[in-house]
């Protein structure tokens, strides 16, 4: 038998709490001849059980019902689900700390941080001395920080001569434009790159176009290249994560192969504010085209594009961000080739001059992955209207 003070010590609860529990009928002390209350082993066990149930998320009332075998299964099922979520979160925090301590590869740390806090991840990379463009790239590449200068130099050497920065084709851009259900008077293009879509938008619409990219050099070149459309197209160096425009400024926002940089779902949410009511967002994104991708493909994209998902998941995200889906379609196989064929040729041409280049190795890995695409992944166009 235990006195109340002994019982309190054993379970770490105060006398007041125990008396309250007694009042609720959770424990049952017996008054002894000497006037003290005494508690049995059964009381001790009940208290230990209550504590476990409480840390599983049950209220005192639910604990009592549990002890009396009267608890509703539905309540237990709900608590179990919550508990599973908490455990998963704790596991994630544990992995994060383990990666920081060097017990897991740093790549895991980047991937994890990117999932939980993409903006903080970018901020952190910038604080490490990366330009925003490089930080955005590193975000996906998660490479060894110490070699990043060489890495970037090699990367630009390969890409600078190419006409495209990602899969896509003029025909697919025009198909998407044909599906836009409004006559846009103002267009914002985000991540305009080399201006391929920009030119088509200028040719095919009567809109005033603002095209932004955070690559100042590319913007300078575009300004010169678009002399003929100077009254219609304005280029600006800006970051897609911090766009210098007021709400409801545009009828149409266009972003091919770029939204992934800040996270497509994030882009859906943030860019919506810039659209006028009934405005349209056109975004393209890399998606899984099958439920059963090959292991190799899964492995490749899980590190290169951890946020990659399916068309139906992106549609669900777009709907919950406040859009209706006008249409969606995968870009053609030819559009993939337009990007990867010249890239393969360029790598083959410069490879010998860049021995041991990690950038070359990474691009070759990407080319290998593309060679096994076999309809496993698509570049999907989404035409969405602000609901
Ligand atoms: C894969 S390319 C796509 C370019 C073009 N839309 C196309 O389809 O060819 C991604 C573009 O996003 C730009 N970019 C990267 N980070 C950015 C940011 N934070 N804000 C704006 N543009 C960014 C890059 O400079 C690059 O031009």
From TrEMBL:
Residues 66-100 form a coiled coil. The keyword Transport does not apply. Keywords: Coiled coil, DNA-binding, Methyltransferase, Transferase. GO terms for molecular function: DNA binding; DNA-binding transcription factor activity; methyltransferase activity. Pfam families: MerR_1 (PF13411), Methyltransf_25 (PF13649). It comes from the Bacteria. The keyword Methyltransferase applies. One of its GO terms (biological process) is methylation. Residues 1-69 form the HTH merR-type domain. This is Methyltransferase. It comes from Vibrio panuliri.
């Amino acid at each position: 038998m235990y006195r109340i003070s002994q019982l309190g010590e054993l379970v770490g609860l105060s006398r007041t709490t125990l008396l309250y529990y007694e009042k609720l009928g959770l424990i049952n002390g017996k008054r002894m001849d000497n006037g003290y209350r005494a508690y049995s082993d059964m009381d001790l066990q009940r208290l230990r059980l209550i504590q476990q149930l409480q840390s599983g998320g049950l209220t005192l009332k639910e604990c009592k019902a549990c002890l009396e075998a009267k608890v509703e299964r539905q309540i237990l099922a709900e608590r179990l689900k919550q508990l599973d979520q908490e455990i998963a979160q704790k596991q994630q925090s544990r992995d994060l700390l383990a990666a920081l301590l060097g017990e897991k590869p740093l790549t895991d740390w980047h991937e994890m941080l990117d999932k939980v806090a993409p903006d903080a991840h970018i901020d952190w990379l910038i604080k490490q001395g990366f330009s925003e463009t490089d930080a955005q790239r590193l975000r996906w590449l998660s490479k060894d920080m110490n070699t990043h200068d060489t890495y970037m130099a090699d990367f630009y050497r390969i890409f600078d001569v190419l006409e495209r920065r990602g899969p896509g084709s003029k025909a697919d851009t025009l198909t998407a434009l044909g599906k836009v259900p409004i006559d846009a008077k103002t267009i914002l293009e985000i991540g305009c790159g080399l201006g391929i879509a920009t030119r088509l938008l200028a040719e095919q619409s009567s809109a005033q176009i603002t095209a932004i990219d955070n690559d100042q050099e590319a913007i300078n070149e575009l300004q010169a290249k678009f002399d003929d459309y100077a009254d219609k197209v304005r280029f600006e160096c800006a970051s897609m994560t911090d766009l210098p425009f007021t709400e409801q400024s545009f009828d149409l926002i266009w972003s091919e192969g770029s939204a992934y940089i800040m996270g497509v779902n994030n882009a859906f949410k943030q860019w919506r504010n810039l659209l006028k009511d009934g405005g349209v967002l056109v975004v393209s994104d890399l998606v899984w085209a099958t439920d059963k991708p090959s292991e190799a493909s899964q492995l490749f994209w899980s590190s290169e594009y951890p946020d990659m998902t399916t068309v139906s998941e992106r549609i669900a995200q777009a709907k919950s961000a406040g859009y209706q889906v006008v249409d969606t379609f995968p870009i053609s196989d030819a559009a993939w080739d337009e990007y990867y064929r010249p890239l393969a040729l360029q790598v083959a041409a410069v490879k010998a001059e860049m021995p041991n280049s990690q950038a070359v190795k990474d691009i070759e890995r990407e080319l290998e992955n593309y060679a096994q695409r076999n309809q496993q992944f698509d570049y999907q166009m989404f035409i969405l209207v602000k609901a």
